[in-house]
Amino acid sequence: MTSPYDVLTRITSNRRAAEPAGERCEMCSEAIADEHQHVVDVAGRQLMCVCRACYLLFTDSNAELRYRAVPDRYLAFADFALDRRAWDALQIPVGVAFFFTNSELGRTVAFYPGPAGACESELDLEAWNAISRADSRVGLLTDDVEALLVRVPESQDGEDAGPQTYLVPIDACYEFVGRLRMLWRGFDGGQQARAFIDSFFAQIAARAVETPP
């Protein structure tokens, strides 16, 4: 006769070892490292964490796919065609924003950081189109997966410094606003937030390849 102890022993010996905790690919459930790649669900406007194998399925930028791999390209646009007047015309309430083409909508959209995370701007398309026509480098951005990240410094002694402008992967932008959200204090973000912005843009500048007009 089988005793309760025998049953418990058999269950314990047959139990699979617990799998290590950690992040998993949102497509195939394979375990992935903290440093991993992303794809964009174009229709759902969702950023997905994926393994290398799944990432490689969606790297063809010319294919008509629902998912698109986020590239790892960083370009610096010195002397970008954006002055204070043009920035004001965009009606963005802070000095940092990122712009990308949403292929589902068929137009450029803009987001800026705030205490709640990424806030969508009511982008003045006429003002944006004027900037695009003035600087052909805007055309280098890949729809949905790359963004133009812009920082317009505050005026110093009545003089406007030129904008810091970079082409970056879209996931870098969402990482930026996500981390900034955790540091944000008060109306303008506070000292910690400003220090983080300085540090983040310094890292981007060190990584980006200079791309002339």
Briefly, what is this?
The chain contains 6 helices and 10 strands. With 213 residues, the chain is of the alpha+beta class. The strands form 2 sheets. It has a 7-stranded mixed beta sheet with strand order 7-6-5-8-9-4-10.
Query: What's the number of extended β-strand segments?
Result: 10
Task: Find the structural class using helix and strand composition.
Answer: alpha+beta
What characteristic shape results from the CA principal axes?
Answer: globular
Q: How are helices and strands ordered from N to C?
A: HEEHEEHEEEHEEHHE
Average pLDDT taken over every residue: 86
Approximate strand percentage: 15-25%
- Measure the end-to-end span: 85 Å
Number of helices: 6
Widest sheet, order of strands: 7-6-5-8-9-4-10
Helix content: 25-40%
Poorly predicted runs of 5 or more residues: 2-19
C-alpha Rg (nearest Å)? 22 Å
For the report, how would you describe the main beta sheet? 7 strands, mixed
